[in-house]
Specification:
124 residues, globular, seven-stranded mixed β-sheet, mainly beta
């Protein structure tokens, strides 16, 4: 089993930046890739970004390309989401998740383990 804990959320002004962190523990060797998802009030959970542990291959949803950067520190079992040029529509609870070696990496049901989430609020 993999345990995930997010941190780094908060309140920022539009155009500002925020860095989210996700600490992984437990059977982390079973994790092939990590993803970030977000869920705003009244909306379904949305894919944001993903990265593989081994090769560092990344993928992003179109709405955050050029603004967000996902990265990982394998030695520390940490995954990060650097969010720049934040917009009010980025406001949501952000979750990190772990998946095995299958699928596209962009679909929530591909992920086996989830963190508790961290709130990101962007003021206009």
């Amino acid at each position: 089993q993999v345990q995930l804990v997010e941190s780094g959320g908060g309140l920022v002004q539009a155009g500002g930046s925020l860095r989210l962190s996700c600490a992984a523990s437990g059977r982390t060797f079973s994790s092939y890739a990590m993803g970030w998802f977000r869920q705003a009030p009244g909306k379904q959970r949305e894919f944001v970004a993903a990265i593989t542990w081994s090769g560092g291959t990344t993928t992003y949803t179109n709405s955050v390309k050029g603004r967000f950067t996902i990265s990982r520190d394998n030695a520390k079992n940490m995954v990060y989401l650097q969010m720049d040029s934040l917009k009010p529509e980025d406001t949501a609870v952000y979750y990190c998740a772990s998946k095995g070696r299958f699928g596209t990496g962009m679909i929530s049901y591909e992920y086996d383990y989830w963190g508790q989430g961290t709130q990101v609020t962007v003021s206009s």
